[in-house]
Model the fold of this input.
Amino acid sequence: MKSIGRCRAHTNIALIKYWGKRNEELFLPMNSSLSLTLDAFYTDTEVTLDSTLDSDVFFLDNVKQGDKETAKITNFLNLFRNRANIETKACIKSYNHVPTAAGLASSASAFSALAGATNQATGLNLDLKTLSTLARQGSGSATRSIYGGFVEWFMGESDLSESSFAIPVDDATWDIGMIVIAVNTGRKKLSSRVGMKQTIDTSPFYSSWVETATKDIEKIKKAISEKDFITLGEITESNGMKMHATMLGAFPPISYWEPDSVKAIQKVKEIRDMGLPCYVTMDAGPNVKVLCKRSDMIEIENKLLEDFTRDQIIPSSVGEGIKLLSQDEWNY
Done:
């Protein structure tokens, strides 16, 4: 017997950052966060429950993965199998249209797509809130990729897993866009997970980060409700820089930046000074994301091309939430 589920999920870029867990096993964050889902980057995943399999098998971009990576997937699938009261093993085929481990939120789209496909394959038909809660336990930021547009992830209460989930805030269809400046799409040397823990354990700035992030999220939600792009951008840029400041305060100091990261930040500020509103944010990686108006994207791209190559400039519109794929839509 076989049962198949297929799902597409897009990445999201946090405007109010998630950096640090209070419960590492359940991926419960130290603060709430808010993101923008992007259509340019996504993951397609197929889950086939197959009674003839003796163990789970995981292929990423047609490459069979080893025991360590497969074990992570098995643990995640067990969240669904336990609910469905089944032990059937699965063949998972995932295709990442995002550079892996480059600070471009590949794990967000990966585990969100895996959650959607597994939900379909098991026949559980869980609602989006529950899927968001489960996706979080694969990758924290995956909880937000369940939805499109602007999305808020609640930090939740204490160690109550069911209290920490994401909800859609706004569809972001009011002239919102983002440009990724791909400084380096290679795998980063220090994982986000390790960087978070080191920052929490050693940075004297961390407690202030959590306190101000809580204030930032209320301010940015107000800006979104009022469609105030300037305030939205200013808060986004400030929050991202504060997160990286906490890393610089860690022992030993952590920096994901490269020389071209600084070059990109300076270029964006130069463009802004010309009268085009655009703001930077960065995650745990060297790549720079530019929040801008969709109607300004071509002009901003042309100015970025003065310093960066065409393949380094990746424009994106707002992405949608998870989508189940039919056999005809599965083009692999």
Notes: The domain at 2-173 is CATH 3.30.230.10 (Ribosomal Protein S5; domain 2).
